[in-house]
Amino acid sequence: MSLFLLAFVITMAQIILGLAMGCAVFRVVRGPRAQDRVLGLDALYLAAMLVLLTYGIQTGRTLFFEAALVVALLGFAGTVALAKFLMRGEVIE
Amino acid sequence: MIEAPELPIWAAIIVGFFVLAGASITLIGAIGLVRLGSFYERVHAPTLGPTLGTICILIASITCFTTLQSRPVIHEILIGVFISLTTPVTLMLLARAALYRDSREGAIDVPGDSANAIND
Fold first, then answer.
1. Residues 75-104 of B with CB under 8 A from A
2. Is the pLDDT reported for residue B72 higher than 50?
3. Taking the model in full, what pTM does it have?
4. Which of A21, A55, A85, B91 has fewest C-beta within 10 Å?
C-alpha cells in the first residue's frame, strides 16, 4: 500500500514538473524579447534536471544522478554564454 | 510507469513529501514566469526552482538512497552546491545584459537609472 502511494506521489511530482516545463516552453516561444527566451530556457533545463532526479528516485538507480549533474553544468555554461552574447554581441572576445 | 523503491514507511513518507513539495514549488516559480508582466519582474520568479525546489528534491533523493543502500549517500549535495552557486551568477549576468540592451534602446520602463546605479 505504501509502495503504491509512493509510486503515485512520484508520478504526480513528475507530472507537476512537466507542467513547469510547459510554462517555461511557453515563455521561450512567446517571450517578447531575447532575454525572456533565455530566462525560459534556464527554467526549462532546471525543471528537466529535477525530472531526472525524480526518475532516479523512482527506479532506485544512481545512474540518473550523473545525467542530472551534466545537465546542470551544461545549462549553466549555455545560459552564461547566451547572456554574454546578448551583452556584447559575441561570446569570446 | 508505476514503480517505486522498496522503502520502509517512514522513509516513504519523507521521500513522498519532499518530492511533491519540491515539484510544487518549482511549478509556482514557472507560473510566475508566465504571469508576471515585465522582464525585470519575471527574472525573480524562476529562482524558486533552483533554491527551494532543488533542495527539497535533493533531500528526498538523499533519504531514498541512504535507506536503500544502508550507508550515507550524500553525493547529491554536489548538485545543490553547484546550482546554488551558479543560479545567481547567470541571472545577474542576464539582468545586466537586459539592462544594457534596454538603456541602449532608450526604453521607458527600465527600473532605476543604470548610470546612477553603477555610481552608487
1. 75-76, 78-79, 82-83, 86, 89-91, 93-94, 96-98, 100-101
2. yes
3. 0.87
4. A85
Asked whether residue B119 is assigned to any structural domain, the reply reads no
Total number of domains in chain B = 1
Interatomic CA distance for residues B40 and A71, integer angstroms: 26
Q: Beta-carbon neighbour count of residue B120 at 10 Å? A: 6
ipTM: 0.87
Q: Looking at the 3D structure of chain A, how many domains does it have?
A: 1
Chain A residues with CB under 8 Å of B83 CB are 46, 72
Which CATH number does the domain housing residue A81 bear?
1.10.287
pLDDT recorded at residue B119: 46
Task: With CB atoms and an 8 Å threshold, state whether B22 touches A50.
Answer: yes
* Any domain includes A20: yes
Q: What is the pLDDT of residues A71-90, one digit of tens each?
A: 999 999 999 999 888 888 77
